[in-house]
Amino acid sequence: MKRAQASTEALIIVAAVLVSLLILIVMLLNIGMTSQNIYDDGIVRTATNDLADNALIVWHQGEGARQRVYLQLPDGVTNISTQGEHITLTRGIAGNEKQYTRALSFNVTGNLSITRSGYWVIVERSGGLVVIRASD
After folding, report:
1. How far, CA to CA in Å, does 44 sit from each of 19, 21, 113?
2. CA 133, CA 110: separation in Å to the nearest integer?
3. Domain tally for the chain?
4. Per-residue pLDDT of the chain in tens (136 residues, 90 and over written 9)
5. Which residues neighbour 89 within 8 Å (Cβ) at sequence distance 6 or greater?
6. Is 121 within 8 Å of 132 (Cβ atoms)?
7. For residue 126, what are the contacts with CB-CB under 8 A and spacing of at least 6?
8. CA-based diameter of the chain, in Å?
9. Strand runs (DSSP E) across the chain, as ranges?
């Protein structure tokens, strides 16, 4: 009888340890995914600021000024808008959309693809506004 009781108690202890490990693994996976989202948000924020900073540079340099910028985008970027006085990158994750916008004091325009994660972009002052386009 004592042997059966010891075996049962051992199985209960092993089951409790396994459940605890499973909970710990799930928590660690969630922390990992959250860390990746924070990292990717930083990349999108940096890309928005890079575009805006280079637009500001060419605006102050005058007509015909041009900069070449490498734009790195993580998965989930759904839209890049360069309209009016704003540059906006939109990132959608699990049904939630976040917009990263940078306001400028001049008009910007352009059409950028989001099909590639990293590519060169031309930022150029032309005709009283700043044009942002993919490099050839």
Report:
1. 38, 35, 15
2. 5
3. 1
4. 677 787 888 888 889 989 888 888 888 777 766 777 888 888 889 999 999 999 999 999 999 999 999 988 888 888 888 889 999 999 887 778 888 999 999 999 988 877 767 889 999 999 889 999 988 7
5. 44, 47, 48, 73, 77, 79, 80, 81, 99, 100
6. yes
7. 63, 64
8. 93
9. 66-72, 77-83, 86-93, 96-103, 108-111, 118-126, 129-134
Domain that holds residue 72: 2-134
Tell me, yes or no, if the pTM score tops 0.70.
Answer: yes
Give the angle subtended at the CA of 59 by the CAs of 58 and 60, to the nearest 5°.
90
Amino acid symbol at 133:
R
Residue 134 burial (CB count, 10 A):
14
With beta carbons less than 8 A apart as the criterion, state whether 109 and 47 touch: no
Distant-in-sequence, close-in-space partners of 31: CB < 8 Å, separation ≥ 6? none
Encoding tokens for residue 23? 């909970």
SS3 assignment, position 35: helix
Where would I find the beta strands (DSSP E) of 4-73?
66-72
